[in-house]
Specification:
alpha+beta, nine-stranded mixed sheet, four-stranded antiparallel sheet
């Protein structure tokens, strides 16, 4: 009977430890609504509109108003299509029909999150009062996560000494 109680308390303890670690991780996230999330824009093109193309090359080219270079997987076990030009690149997972990643390639791209407008090379101070996440490797970033979808986020990486933005990306788990 003592062993049963020990095992039971052990698993309850592990459950609460995992809960507190997860809760702590999400405390350093900047939560926005799904509407705000899908309206994050890259040179005036919203994330939601990019998502709606589902990687269809005709729709992507029409959205960007030009022909985007793309590559498609030849591996039947790994489905993806990747688009890019000199300013922005993104990939779709064809199996899930969803945007899997997006990365701003240079400082020419204007990124708008709510009323804040940023570029690579800007100070993170332009974002105002935001929470900063410290990764397990010690690197810091600013993460915007929708309250309605915890598996997709906007990540802003920056130089810790200068506080200048070095990378802006969308990620999906």
């Amino acid at each position: 009977m003592k062993k049963l109680f020990f095992v039971l308390f052990y698993f309850i303890g592990i459950h609460f430890l995992g809960y507190s670690q997860t809760n702590s991780y999400f405390q350093d996230m900047n939560f926005i609504s799904w509407d705000e999330f899908t309206h994050v824009s890259f040179d005036g093109i919203t994330l939601g509109k990019i998502m709606q193309t589902k990687g269809d090359t005709t729709k992507v080219n029409a959205l960007f108003g030009k022909s985007m270079q793309y590559r498609k997987s030849n591996d039947p076990n790994y489905y993806w299509i990747s688009f890019g030009n000199s300013n922005i690149s993104f990939s779709f997972d064809e199996l899930a029909s969803g945007l899997s990643s997006l990365e701003v390639e240079n400082s020419k791209v204007t990124v708008k999150i709510g009323s804040k407008i940023i570029h690579i090379g800007d100070s993170i101070d332009k974002l105002g009062n935001v929470k900063i996440l410290t990764g397990t490797d010690g690197n810091k970033s600013i993460e915007f996560l929708s309250k309605d979808a915890d598996d997709e986020w906007i990540s802003i990486e920056f130089d810790q000494s200068t506080k200048k933005i070095t990378k802006i990306s969308f990620k999906s788990a």
